[in-house]
Each structure stands twice: as C-alpha cells, then as structure tokens.
C-alpha cells in the first residue's frame, strides 16, 4: 500500500512568484515615455487562476523634474485576478502566458516648482493586460508584462463612480521572476 502511495500522482500545489521589474510608462497622460519600476507578487492556484498584487512607481510621469510640473510621479497599487495556464508544468522549465485585470489605487503627485499648485491625489483605477513568464529552472525565470491603467472618476458624493477618469497610460515591463512552491 505504501508503495502505491509513493508512485501515485502527486497533488498539485500553488505557485508564489515575486518579480521585481523595470520598464516604461507611455501613452495617454504621460508627457513622454518614462522609466517605471516596481514589483509584483503573484499567487497561482493549482490550476490556471490566481491573484496578482502589483506595485509600480513612475518618476517624472508628467515631464522631467524642474520643468513645468516640478517634481512629479505616479504610483500604482493594484489587486488583480490573473489567468494563466502553465505550458510545461508548474515546475522546471516552461512558459506561462497570462491575462490580468483588477482594481486599485492610482496616486498622482505633483510638487509644482513655483508652489502655485501642488497635486497629491489618490484615485480608484483599474488595470488590464497580459504577458508571459518563462522559467529556466524550478525557481528562476523572466516575465514580460504589458498593462493599461486608467483612473475612475469620483462621484458627486465622493463615492466610487465607474466613469472613466482622465489619468491613463500603458506600462511595459520586464523582470526576473522568483518562483516558490510548485
């Protein structure tokens, strides 16, 4: 009996992936394409569905510091559903293409050089995108990601309104992925 258990199918397990990334924010509200960096923590269940936490920081989002906008940046924190089937299994070398989408916070910060106006605004927003993670070993790989971010307008009563806001941009990133579990 013990021998049958030892050679029987193994139970599927979850993957946890940590990905520090660097890339660009471009289009929409950005003045020019500008460097963006951050990190992601992803939990993938034994199947193809999981949860993705994404933190991104983009300095000089509205233009170079010292120009019209002074010091400025956009910070994002998103909680998203992720769907991605592993090709080649959940361990060892393989690929995992995925789609991702969720809600979170978009923070705009502008410290205008002349102190006429400063902006420090937190808005609800969403992100939609996808990418691919490729693994060389059980625990190390690379991940490429493309996401669209958009703010949501505030309602008249400061409640959440699902009308589209003015802040929007694309972010394209790549990073080293560390996988645990599987």
Salient structural properties:
182 residues; mainly beta; Porin; 1 helix; 8 strands; 66% strand
What does this structure look like?
With 182 residues, the chain is mostly beta strands. It has one domain (14-181): Porin (Beta Barrel). Helix content is 3%, strand content 66%. It contains one helix and eight strands. It starts with a helix and ends with a strand. Residues 1-10 have low confidence and may be disordered.
**Major sheet size, sense and barrel closure:** 8 strands, antiparallel, barrel
Q: Report strand %.
A: over 45%
Give the strand line-up of the largest sheet: 1-2-3-4-5-6-7-8
What is the string of SSEs from the N terminus onward?
A: HEEEEEEEE
CATH class: Mainly Beta
Number of helices: 1
What does the radius of gyration come to?
A: 20 Å
Structural class: mainly beta
